[in-house]
Design a protein that fits this description.
Length: 157
């Protein structure tokens, strides 16, 4: 990982802890975390959460343009992240089979599953107008932030 990205994600991890520490409300923490990341990550045009409700993802707190409200599990990048339980790192969303275009300006995307008690309960979705915006360095940094969020959830939910 480049030293700049290491420093950025280290700082974001510290800020994540400060934001969510002492707050047990899931929505409030998602709202603050989406604002933090949206304002600190370069070249991002949408960043937010989708919360799993039965067999579909429902829009949660976010920053950016209006978004798709419901996404079936297994559909699009977000639904695929839930169905597989794996991070989806997509360099060109237009090449992703079944991509759901909520914002036509988005060209790349990363989606990270969020777990509680071993089950996926939500995803963190980040879009960029740039192709190839996200790489494995971003994935590692964001996975650490999601891990901190999950540890907090384990204590508060």
């Amino acid at each position: 990982m480049s030293s700049e990205k290491v420093a950025l994600y280290r700082l974001l991890a510290q800020q994540t802890i400060s934001l969510i520490e002492g707050e047990s409300d899931l929505i409030a923490n998602m709202a603050n975390l989406s604002a933090l990341l949206f304002n600190q990550l370069a070249d991002v045009n949408w960043l937010g959460f989708y919360i799993l409700r039965q067999d579909e993802l429902v829009l949660g707190p976010f920053q950016g343009q209006v978004a798709c409200v419901r996404i079936p599990v297994g559909k699009g990048v977000c639904g695929t992240a839930v169905a597989t339980g794996e991070v989806q790192l997509v360099a060109d969303v237009h090449q992703f089979a079944g991509h759901i275009a909520c914002d036509s300006a988005s060209n790349s995307e990363i989606v990270l599953p969020i777990r509680h008690a071993g089950e996926v309960i939500a995803v963190l979705d980040i879009d960029s107008p740039l192709f190839n915006r996200f790489n494995t360095d971003d994935q590692a940094g964001l996975e650490k932030i999601v891990e901190l969020f999950e540890l907090h959830l384990a204590k508060t939910l």
